[in-house]
Design brief:
Length: 384
């Protein structure tokens, strides 16, 4: 009997050691940590977007003391390179291998739509800072684990079209867009719909692909049509390229675009005087925004762009969800985020609708000041 007891005890010890080896750490240590994923494009064609959001994420976590709800925050950072395939791969790794409880990211609709599919599959909530395409949270029904800190493209397209028609008194517009990019094509659709409904006329809708670099044929046609506005719903690198070629080919139209223009790498000289819709202005006198601008500038030596500011919002939303859930369980965190009512972020007080989008977020229209390399606030557009 004694011999058998010793074997049983030995077996129990072996089983315990084996279970610890599988988890990689003792349960008591694991319970004090919460893993938060951060997916952003740190390389690729919109790397400044990723850097801004990562800066904001790090600042908000630091201001929280590196902890939330009694858990030590362990950030798991992944670079999606602004490609759909890479986004799918890193999101899958975060959900299945790293076992994150929640994710902040990503920056663009191109990558966030596939991330949303992965998160839905593995029941991990995420909050994107800046992905504005409708399909991020609805495709066609609600993606249960998807949230965003920004407004959506139907409203952004409406805001741009309303400003063009009412403020610039534009009666005609041409549009150039990337048909392979959900953000670009979606924003185009909404601008065209709203501008036409207001009474404007779309004289050209010219599509290109992400890898195109020569736009002379389309721009020569647009120069002959001489529309009041050339709408360019794309990211800063492509817009800078198209803008330069347009001016060289004699296009005199006012340039307009969306929030993808917001980058320190935008060609300010080429796009001087142009307008774009965005999520906030650093000149907003709101005490909350001015404190954020001051804190971010002190940390990084430059004012936060909209990507950084919404990255701050997304991180604050995630941390508050964890606080309210008092748990590392992804579904409990998801439910806590959905239940937020009037939560004070940076750009707004956040309440989430049943579609996972923030309710009544306004847009601003900014004008590019080329010589100063800055954006001047023009007006604010509020959802009706």
């Amino acid at each position: 009997m004694l011999k058998r007891t010793k074997w049983v005890a030995l077996l129990l010890v072996v089983m315990f050691v084996f279970s610890v080896a599988l988890t990689g750490c003792a349960p008591s240590t694991q319970s004090n940590v919460i893993k938060i994923g951060l997916i952003v494009p740190l390389t690729g064609n919109v790397a400044t977007f990723g850097q801004s959001i990562q800066n904001a994420f790090n600042l908000v976590v630091k201001q929280a003391g590196g902890t939330v709800a009694g858990y030590t925050i362990q950030a798991v950072v992944a670079d999606d390179q602004n490609t759909a395939n890479q986004a799918t791969a890193v999101a899958t790794k975060l959900c299945t291998q790293d076992k994150v409880s929640v994710i902040v990211g990503s920056a663009t609709s191109l990558t966030t739509i596939p991330i949303s599919v992965v998160c839905e599959q593995y029941h991990v909530p995420f909050v994107t800072a800046t992905a504005t395409n409708v399909r991020v949270t609805m495709d066609p029904t609600r993606k249960f684990y998807a949230f965003r800190a920004c407004f959506i493209d139907p409203f952004q397209g409406l805001a741009g079209a309303t400003f063009a028609y009412n403020n610039l008194h534009a009666k005609t517009a041409a549009v150039m867009f990337d048909e392979t990019n959900a953000y670009s094509s979606g924003l185009k659709d909404n601008f065209v719909k709203a501008f036409t409904k207001l009474g404007g006329k779309i004289v050209a809708q010219n599509a290109y692909t992400t890898n195109d670099t020569d736009f002379s044929a389309d721009l020569t046609q647009i120069a002959k049509l001489n529309p009041d506005v050339l709408y360019l719903p794309d990211y800063y690198q492509k817009v800078s390229l198209i803008g330069g070629q347009a001016r060289n080919l004699g296009v005199k139209s006012a340039f307009m675009g969306g929030d993808g223009w917001d980058s320190s790498d935008l060609n300010f000289a080429v796009l001087n005087g142009s307008y774009f819709t965005n999520h906030y202005s650093a000149d907003d006198p709101s005490p909350v925004i001015q404190k954020w601008v001051s804190d971010y500038t002190a940390a990084y030596g430059s004012k936060p762009d909209a990507l950084a500011t919404l990255g701050g919002d997304a991180t604050l939303i995630v941390l508050q969800g964890i606080r309210n859930a008092q748990s590392t369980d992804p579904t409990k965190i998801r439910d806590a985020i959905q239940a937020l009512k009037g939560f004070q972020g940076i750009t707004a007080k956040f309440t989430f609708g049943p579609d996972g989008n923030p309710v009544n977020k306004p847009a601003v229209v900014l004008q590019i000041n080329g010589p100063a390399k800055k954006y001047n606030f023009v007006t604010e557009v509020t959802p009706s």
